[in-house]
Amino acid sequence: MDACSFDGCEKANFCMTLCRGHYAQRGRNQELKPLRKWNPAGTPCSFEGCDRPIAAKGLCGGHYSQQTQGRPLAALRNWSHARAACEFNGCEADAYAKGWCHNHYQQNYRGTVLRPVKPRKNR
């Protein structure tokens, strides 16, 4: 298959000797310009110390969101997929919020004294 007739574009010919992107530009009556090059997989965010993949304008999704909201760029929290255990002594349930499992979090929310959770009976 032939390449696009736009100088420097190596994409495949789609219609009228142009690739899809340049054909779309012509359809919108725009001056033909070079197409943006998409981020190759794995290119990290340009914010120093951030290793998340680029989403837009050289930034990952979190940093791009900060920029579009007019906030200064700051380090993002590290979200871990590994679940931590509840911080209540002796509870082995996964942490839900503020370091506690769902049951201990609810006890704290209601303002009661934290106490061990009775194990469920298997029926």
Beta-strand share of residues: under 5%
Content-based structural category:
mainly alpha
* Span between termini: 66 Å
Q: How many independent structural domains?
A: 3
Total count of helical runs of at least 4 residues: 3
- Whole-number average pLDDT? 87
Classify the oligomer.
single chain
List keywords for this structure.
mainly alpha; 3 domains; single chain; 123 residues; elongated
Please give a structural write-up.
- The chain has 123 residues and is mostly helical.
- The chain folds into 3 domains: 1-37, no CATH class; 39-73, no CATH class; 82-118, no CATH class.
- Helix content is 20%, strand content 0%.
- It has helices at 20-27, 61-68, 102-110.
- The longest helix has 9 residues, at 102-110.
- It starts with 19 loop residues before the first helix and ends in a 13-residue tail after the last helix.
- The mean pLDDT is 87.
